[in-house]
């Protein structure tokens, strides 16, 4: 592999990493799913997303807008009304996000079982040598 080819792959990997970081964080996924049904106001989303702060919602929406996934429309009313909705690019993200959510839902029990096995194993490994149960 030439050094020039390696540089292109590195830049491509960095670009993909940035995109995945944006669309892979928990708030972005929730916002994309929420906007899949149509435009929503900021405060409506804040009420619907348990645990998100106003600042985090603002930052996430700005990032999604910057990446072309969400559009922001300001209506000249008093007080101003601001709606957020998915762009065509954002709508194209719905299917993979929904598939990932469905996979997570279908595998919650398997993941919980794996976590419990891991926790038991690591707890047993951290016990003093004389107190560990002997495995046969």
UniProtKB/TrEMBL annotation:
- Quote the PROSITE patterns the UniProt record gives: HTH_HXLR
> From which organism does this entry originate?
Ancylobacter koreensis
Which keywords, in A-to-Z order, does the entry hold?
DNA-binding, Transcription, Transcription regulation
Name used for this protein in its record: Helix-turn-helix transcriptional regulator
UniProt keyword Transcription, yes or no: yes
The lineage's top-level taxon is Bacteria
> Does DNA-binding show up as a keyword for this record?
yes
- The UniProt record lists the HTH hxlR-type domain at 13-112
Matching InterPro entries: HTH_HxlR, WH-like_DNA-bd_sf, WH_DNA-bd_sf
């Amino acid at each position: 592999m030439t050094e020039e080819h390696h540089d292109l792959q590195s830049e491509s990997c960095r670009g993909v990493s940035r995109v995945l970081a944006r669309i892979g964080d928990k708030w972005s996924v929730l916002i994309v799913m929420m906007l899949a049904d149509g435009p929503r106001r900021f405060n409506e989303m804040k009420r619907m997303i348990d645990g998100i702060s106003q600042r985090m919602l603002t930052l996430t929406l700005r990032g999604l807008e910057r990446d072309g996934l969400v559009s922001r429309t300001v209506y000249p009313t008093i007080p101003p009304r601001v709606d957020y909705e998915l762009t065509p690019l954002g709508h194209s993200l719905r299917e993979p996000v929904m598939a990932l959510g469905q996979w997570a839902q279908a595998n919650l029990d398997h993941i919980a079982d794996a976590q419990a096995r891991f926790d038991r194993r690591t707890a047993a490994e951290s016990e003093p040598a004389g107190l560990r149960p002997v495995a046969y």
